[in-house]
Structures are given as structure tokens and as C-alpha cells.
Amino acid sequence: MLLGFITDTFGLDKDTIKPYLEWLGINVSDLKASEIWFWIVTIIILFQVGKWVIGKGRFLYSRYSAVNKWRGQYVKEKLEKDYHDYLEEENYQLFIPTKFQNYPPNDYPDPHDSLIVSSELLIEKFLEKVLIRKNTNRDLYCVLGGSGMGKTTFAIHLFKEYVWKYKKESLPFEISFFSLSDDSVIEKINGIENQAEHVLILDALDESSQAAKNFASYIDKLEKAIKNFRIVIITCRTQFFKTEEEELKESKLRNYGINKGFRTYNRQYISPLADKDIADYIDKKYPFRLLMPSTYKNKKKREKAKLIIRSSGNIMVRPLMLSYIDSLLGESNDIVTTNDMYQHLISSWIGREADMISGADERTKIKDAIWSLSQKLAVNLYKNRRRRNGYYIASAEFDQFKVANDYDRIDYSFDSRSLVNRNSSGDIKFAHKSFLEFFLAKEKWEHPDFSIDFEGMDMALLFFYEIFQKEVDKNIEAGNIEVTKDDMPGRWNITGVKAVSFVKEPDFRYEWFSKLFELQHITLYDGMMNERMKNWICTTSIKSISIHKGIITDLGIFIGISRLEVINLKDCRVSLTPQLLSTIASRGISLIVNDKVISYYHRINHYADRATNIALLKHRKCVNYADMPEIPRKI
Questions:
Q1: CA angle, 152 as apex, 315 and 350 as ends, to 5°?
Q2: What's the number of domains the chain is made of?
Q3: Residue 310, in any domain of the structure
Q4: End of a domain among 64, 86, 102?
Q5: What residues make up the domain containing 182?
Q6: Is 319 buried (19+), middle (13-18) or exposed (0-12) by CB count in 10 A?
């Protein structure tokens, strides 16, 4: 058992360990199995001890060497306390190096598609080519990225890695880090001495309240404050600017010397995470550590995390989304479907945006507004997709949309601080197409009259069926309904529902059963024969119906069901007139009352033979879906 645990956890066997043993001069062919395992465990222990010693050595050096003491103190003094969490060992170790590209990822329907454009390491570029003495240019940089793309994380890591690259006496330039969300930031910048030998990193231009109110006036003031600095790096959300043309390009700061004219902003767009980046993050988050108690647990977490990532489309290309993976694992009892996962991720994203608002009531108001706007916008994009030739809305039309739905009365920037972003033309779209599909499925469930063709929207279709699944399972657990697949007990899948029994009034739209599935049989128990139920049943194409302990004033209402073959009544109060029986027989319907065949039609004798036992269907429960097979596209 122990050996099985070792081989399973560490992936070791005789063939794997053989080269190492032979390198130590040990002939494996001369060893017994027990001796081989002795050497395997010994090598694991030696490796782990060596790794621990090296790690401790590095830690002690980084903590107590004079140069590193200065580096650590410099970073902490220059960086405001609000950002110190980014420097914690765990967060710092999980950092995936930021890459950049020259074309905005938002121009692609799926940010993952933009990875076809070549990208480079952004911090490496600044450290090796920009923040060096040989660079005599007085550069301005604007680093742009969508929501959750890691702009602040990049800025802090650049700041720290720049300081840690040099000793005190060899630092090319002094460097300072400020958040532009601070209304007093310009005064702080003006207070810096020797600006010509100073580098500025200015984070979150999009979070500046002054820039949001009057951008032209604010950028004039900011450029006057930064004009004498050697190099200035500004980060900002791409969607803060309505179009690519409005992004920071040419400043009002003059160049002097050979290159006259005005200084321009070098724009760098943060690239989405590649598949390898995501895999590296998971390996760092749940590392493989020899002989550590967490090793086996981390292996299980890695496997589950990768399963979640595979089922999430490409939304994990955003570092923010990927950072929620731990909470997804932690809430695994509640998150059992892809829809649950998106509900969690979108709630987290909206919560992050609203947390910048002061006041608990105001934050709740903003969260509710983002949710409702997103759903209404999804419907608008879907209904107008052909006219616009895509799932987007022009900026001016989006303003009209907000006015029409009273969102203009809310003091909040929905354009830049919600689930949407913009492409280079200024058109507004969802940050990821799967967000659009999530809200379309939600709209369809809440408003069945909403007409949608799910062709090309596999995620929306999956979301809808999973919402239905959750409601059905909840009512099964409550004892309101019982579901049968092909007259067999066990698990049922989305296309396999054949029979439904209604014990109590369910708390969801049970009419979806006939819209989603080809129902064969419905069973109704005492009290369920109400007007809503009768009206629904008459629109179905079931083959048989069973009614237990009901009062039926007009059995003839079921005769119009085109495919009906059997009516089974048990302990019911019903009036059976000769005319009604004649009509039932002429329609080719078998009537069974208290297990006695009253009317029998020869063409369906295979069905009549089992009709008396049809009530047994109510004992056969199912509690979950199998993997989703091919399912109807139109609802």
C-alpha cells in the first residue's frame, strides 16, 4: 500500500529510478525489490533535504545580506501600504511574467485568439532596454489592458524587480510608484527632487475620479507634472478610452535636440495568458513537493483545477479569473456545473468593481445595476446582431441604451467598470463571449417568451440546461417531482427524460419538460389536476397519462392529444358516459381504471400489457445528469 502511494504520488518505478541508481554506481539488476525501494526512498529524502537547505540558504541571504536589506527597505518605503499584499511571498511566487503585444486583444471576439499575434515579456523589455543608462530617450509609456489583465500586478513587479536588479550605488535612476486614483498624486509628483534622474510608475489612470470628470484638463495637469522625469510609465484600462484614437498617443510635451516635435506615448497592450502560462500558474499554486504532507492533496487539486479550466472556455486567460481558482475549489460542494462556476466568477468580478464604491448600500446598488445592465445588454446585442453584423453596440448607441433603461441616472462608469470592454473602433462588447451567452441563458430561463436560436452558442445552451437541471434536482430532493429515463431507474440525461411524476406543485416552470424533451408519460397525484397543469398537458405529445386520487370533471380534454395511447386512472372520481367511452375507443386510446382495462385498442397491445404497472414509475428516481449528449438547438 505504501509503495502504491509512492508510485502514484511521485510517478516513480524501477525503470524511472534506474538511471539515478546507476549514476550512483548501483547495479539495479543485482538488487532485490525491497532494496530498490530503499534506494528510491533514500534519494527522495536526500533530494528533499537538499532542496530545503538551498531554500533556507536563499531565504537567509535575501533577509540578512546588507544589499538585500537596502532593496527591501527601498521597495517598502516607496510603495504605499495598500500594495504590500502584492509583495507577500505566496503572491509574488505565483506571478506569471506579463507579456505584451502591439495590437489590442479586445479586437478579437475571444481574447485567446489574439495569441496568434507575437508577444514579448514586458518586464524584461523595460529592464533590459528602457530603464538603463544607455537609453537617453525621455520616454513616455502607456500600458493598456482589459479588466483583470494584471496591470497593477505588472507595475508592482516591474518596480520591485528594477530595484532588486541593482545595488544601491549602481541604481541607474531613482524610481517612484503612485496610484492615479489618489486625488493628491500630482502634488506628490511635484514634490520629488532631481526629476531628470527619476523614473515614475503611475498606476490606474482609469481609476482617477478627476480624469473621469474632465480627461483633457486632468491629462494637461498630469503632463505638466511629469514633463521633467526621465521615464514615465502609466497603466490604464483599454476601455477607459472610447476608441483607439482617443488612447494616449501624442503628448503636449516638447522634444528638444535632434528629434524635435512632441513626445509620444509608446502603447503596450497586455497579452492574455497562454495555455502554458495557465498550466505554470496551477503548478505553482499547487506545487509538487517531495515527502511533504500536501503533495498528494496538491495533486488532486491540480487535477480538479485543470478540469475546471477546461470547462470554463477561455475566460482563464485573464489573471484575475485565474486567481479565483482556489475559491472555486473551496466551494466545490456548491459549484457543480459550468453555470455555477460562471455565476461565482461573474459575481466576484462585479464585486471587485463595486468594492471601489464607498458605502455598503451604494455598493449593493451598483452590483445590482451591473447585473441588470449586463442581462439587458446581452438581449440587445442578440436582437440586433444581424443589423450590427456582430455582438457589439456602438458607443453612441450604448449611451442611448443606458438612457432608455435609466442607467444614466446612476453615477457610475458602466463603460469602463463592468463586464464590457471596447474594440479599437470604440464599439462596446462583453469582455468574453461566454459572458454574453451566460446572460442570454439566464434571460431565456426567466422569460420563456424570449426567442433565441442557440445555433453557434454551445455555452448558452449548456448554461440553460444546467439551470433547468438544478431546478429539477432541487424539486426531486423536495419530493415534488420524480423523473424516469426510459422506464429505468438510475441517472437520467438531458435527452433521456421519458416520464415525469408530479407529487406536489413544483416551484419552477415545469412546462419546460415538454419543450426540452420528448415526454412519453406523465403521472399526476392528488391535487395536481389544476387548470395550469391541464392546459400544459393538452399541448404535449405524450403517449400515456396516469392520474391518482384526482377529481376529473372532463376526461375528454385529453382526447385531443395527438399521440395519446393510454389513460390510467387510479382511485379517481370521474364520470364515464357511453359517449365518452365510444370517443376514447374511436381515437384508439386504451382506458385503464383501477388496474382494469375498460377500453382497449389492439394496435397498442404492447403498451396495454404494462399499463397496469405504470404507477411503479414513481418509485424510480434520478438525481443527476449524465454528460450532455446532442440536444435540441431551438427552444
A1: 45
A2: 4
A3: no
A4: 64
A5: 68-270
A6: buried
CATH code assigned at 540: 3.80.10
Task: Indicate if the alpha-carbon torsion angle 19, 25, 30, 36 is positive or negative.
Answer: negative
Per residue in 144-159, pLDDT tens?
Answer: 988 788 899 999 999 9
- What's residue 609's pLDDT? 31
Q: Are strands 497-502 and 521-524 parallel, antiparallel or unpaired?
A: parallel
Q: Is 575 found in the same domain as 434? A: no
CA 512 – CA 626 distance, rounded (Å): 19
Residue whose C-alpha cell reads 536563499 in the numeric block: 58
Burial class (CB in 10 A: 0-12, 13-18, 19+), 140: buried
239, three cell numbers:
476601455
205 and 233 assigned to the same domain: yes
Task: Identify whether residues 136 and 58 lie together within a single domain.
Answer: no
Below-50 pLDDT ranges, the chain: 1-3, 5-7, 9-11, 486-494, 601-635
Answer whether residue 208 is part of any domain.
Answer: yes
Q: Return the number of other C-beta atoms located less than 10 Å from residue 367's C-beta.
A: 17
From residue 156, give the alpha-carbon distance in Å to each of 68, 75, 159, 271, 518.
Answer: 18, 10, 5, 17, 57
- Give the span between the Cα atoms of 252 and 266, in whole angstroms: 14
476-482 contacts at long range (C-beta below 8 A, 24 or more positions apart): 476/621, 476/622, 476/623, 477/623, 478/504, 478/507, 479/503, 479/504, 480/504, 480/505, 480/506, 480/507, 481/506, 481/510, 482/523, 482/617, 482/618, 482/619, 482/620, 482/621
Q: What CATH number has the domain bearing residue 239? A: 3.40.50
Report field, pTM of the whole predicted structure over 0.85: no
Q: Position of cell 429539477?
A: 472
Same domain, yes or no: 105 and 28: no
Shortest CA distance to 94 belongs to which of 163, 11, 164, 150? 150
Output the CA torsion 316→320→322→326 (10° steps): -150
200 within a domain of the structure (yes/no): yes
The grid coordinates listed for 178 are: 503612485
Question: Are residues 600 and 557 both part of a single domain?
Answer: yes
Alpha-carbon distance of 532 to 613, in angstroms, equals 27
Is the domain of 183 the same as that of 72? yes
Assigned C-alpha cell, 349: 468580478
Residue at a domain's end among 13, 45, 64: 64
User: Do the domain assignments include residue 313?
Assistant: no
Q: Is the dihedral of CA 449, 450, 454, 460 positive or negative?
A: negative
**Are 436 and 556 members of one domain?**
no
Do 556 and 591 form a contact (C-beta atoms < 8 A)?
A: no
User: Using CB atoms within 10 A of its CB, is residue 228 exposed (0-12), middle (13-18) or buried (19+)?
Assistant: middle
pLDDT tens by residue, 373-431: 999 999 999 999 889 888 889 989 999 999 999 998 888 888 877 888 887 778 888 88
110 and 211 fall within a common domain: yes
How many residues make up the chain in this entry? 635
CA 324 to mean position of chain CA atoms: 9
Q: Which of 246, 153, 242, 168 has the alpha carbon at shortest distance from 201? A: 153
User: For the chain, how many helices (H) and strands (E)?
Assistant: 24, 19
- The 10s digit of each residue's pLDDT in 563-591 is 888 888 888 888 778 888 888 888 888 88
Q: According to DSSP H, which parts of 325-414 are helical? A: 325-330, 338-354, 360-383, 385-388, 395-404
Q: Which pLDDT belongs to residue 137?
A: 85
Q: Is 15 exposed, middle or buried (0-12, 13-18, 19+ CB in 10 A)?
A: exposed
